Structures are given as structure tokens and as C-alpha cells.
UniProtKB/TrEMBL annotation:
Pfam families from the UniProt entry: HATPase_c_4 (PF13749), SLFN_AlbA_2 (PF04326)
Superkingdom: Bacteria
Entry-linked Gene3D superfamilies: 3.30.565.60, Schlafen, AAA domain
Transmembrane segments: none
Residue ranges occupied by any Schlafen AlbA-2 domain in the UniProt entry: 14-128
Organism for this UniProt entry: Candidatus Thiothrix anitrata
InterPro entries in alphabetical order: RecG_C_sf (IPR038475), Schlafen_AlbA_2_dom (IPR007421), Schlafen_AlbA_2_dom_sf (IPR038461)
Protein's name according to its UniProt entry: DNA binding domain-containing protein
Amino acid sequence: MQTPEILDRINNGEDSTTQFKQDVTDANRLAEELVAFSNAAGGLLLIGVCDDGTLTGLSETQIGRINQLLSNTANENIKPPIYPLTEILNIQGKRIIAVSIRKGINRPYQTNKGVYFTKSGSDKRKMSPEELRRLFAESERLFADEETLLRTDITDLNTESFYAFLDADNRDVYEALKQAKLELPTVLHNLELLRDGHLTLAGNLIFGKTPQRFSPSFYVDCVHFDGDDVSVGNFITKATIKGSLSQQYESSMQFLRINLRSIPTAIGFNAHTRLEVDEAILGELLVNALVHRDYYIQSSVKVFVFQNRVEIISPGKLPNSLTVEKIKNGLSVHRNPILNSVCRRVLPYSGYGSGIKRVVKLNPSVTFIDDREKEEFRCLIPRNPTQNE
């Protein structure tokens, strides 16, 4: 790294990607710092710099000892091992060690004492069970909707709803089931809606009798605010919408129909009306939020109606290398493959990644925000300005 870049980092102080140490002597504490960086976005550890940014430098003896400590710690005190890059720099006549730690490709990492850390601002903290589950799932290429809900069994399935789906999706299997040539658990297992006698998350969300009994955080919060921001003191109406994904979709759309203005399409008492916001746009974005949200985050989908816009917010940033521009051009990554497959018969959803592209074609002024810090994906749909004066 170049001296001006290092000086900028020092002058800006410690943050989530920059840490100062005057010296390091304890392998266990060093392991905690390296693990925290590896489980987060990576970063730079500057040794020979005080917490306040004062350059103290290191002696030749210190440099030799610290380099050996770094090597041993990275290999012996961290599981799986990491491979930081070290560089000895001369800054303002002081020699320091710059340790570059990459964002780990085998996350989550732990110390040899079995503790998982991640960054929290300029400090570190132990990782929550939820964060660990998500990182383990990512590393093992598991998906949230595949997880089994151990408190469930087949009696928690709404069989009437499932049979209606099967009748539309695969008539041959439906008939074989009716004629007892196939057993219900077998069909559910083949569709990955049941595993080891328990409903998967997908099975519960799509066909569960009371989905929120076992998945209490997965519902839709609908609020009509009396203003243009969530900080306003008053709301006009609100609703907590639970049930299966199809019930959540229908009830959320009904909330929007009630809380948005209807505009006559012609002159006359009996003229038809349409919503001030295209229902096709609202439907596409709501389906997108329900099917593609991050189900490792224990939070609800938000449907907010403001005076000047509608916002549909789904938990989770865009996965992998997806960007807003890529999804606007029709590229998709299936975060929840079971939901993606089954919901084609349950919701007005094609599963081909065309939804956002279709929204942009219908209304180019719709804005998409991939908020990676808050871990949420927001869709902002402007309301008809002539109706809000």
C-alpha cells in the first residue's frame, strides 16, 4: 500500500475496516481481531499505531516477533485458517506493519476456543445464532426455504390448499394420489415441502394451516402514513397481514386498493376506475418481496403508503453479485429455489426474472434501492401527483 493511502486511513481513524494496534503479544486476542475481519468485509490492521492515530513504530525485534505471531495465529488459532498479507512500511520515519485481511471465502471463521466474532463499527462482537446460521447456510450452499421446522409435522399442512395446487400443477400425480398409488408424504418430500416428517419453511409458508405459529416473523406490515416519512406522528390505517404467502399477497393487495385513490377512466357516473398506481406494478413488486426476500432475517415485509409514494420493502440485500442494474435487465438469482418453483402455481409469478424488468417498462420512474447496510431491498413507486395536491 502507498504511504498517502495509509496516512489517510490513519487520519480518518478506526472504523469497520481499519484497526490500530500499538503492539500485539497475545495470540488469542489477535485471533479474535482477525476472525472479526474475516467474517465481515475484511480490512486493514495497522500495528505500530496507537488508538488515537499516533505513530509509535516498531523495532526490528518487534517486527520479527509480530510476523511470527501473525503466521502462527492465522494457522493455529483460527478455524479454518486464514492467509493475511503483511507489509512493513516506513511512515514518517516510523516502521509499522500493515496486515491486510480479506473477506473470508469459507465463512464463518472461529477462534480455536470456538468463538465467532464479526465487526461492529470500529470494535468487534460475538456473532448471533441467526448470523451464524446464515453464514453456515451460505458456505454449504443451503437455502433458507429448505430448512425443516422441527415442531411441525404433516398434520400442520392445509391439505385442501395443497391438493388444489397439485390439481393445477400435475394432474397425473394428483390422480395417482387420489387413487392411493402414491402417498402424500412421498409427494411432499419430492417437492421438498416435507423432510424427515417435518414441513420445510417453504412447505409451511405456502401450505401451512397457521404459518406464523412456526414462522412468527414472516408476515406483511402494512401502514398508510399521514405524510411522506415514517417519522410522522400519525397514520391513517395499518394492518398486520398473516397467513400463507397467497393470503399475504391477496390481503396486502386489498390494503393497497383501499388506501390508494381510484381514478375514473372516462367521464360519467358509471365510468370504470383504476388505481392511481398500476396494479400490475404493485403485484409484481409484492410477489418479488414475498418470494425473493431473505428468510434468514427475522423480519416482516413492509408495505408503506405515503402521501407521495408507495414503498415495498423486503428484508435482505440483493444476493451474490446482483445489482439494481442487473435485475432491471432481467437477471435473477434464486435465493429461495423451492418458493421460486412452487409459487409459480400459487402466486401471479412466472419465476423467470422478468418481474422487475416488466415494472421498469410499465413505469421507468419506479426506484430500486439495494440498502446493503440495512440489509433491505426497497421499491419506491410514485403516486399520481395530480391526485395528491
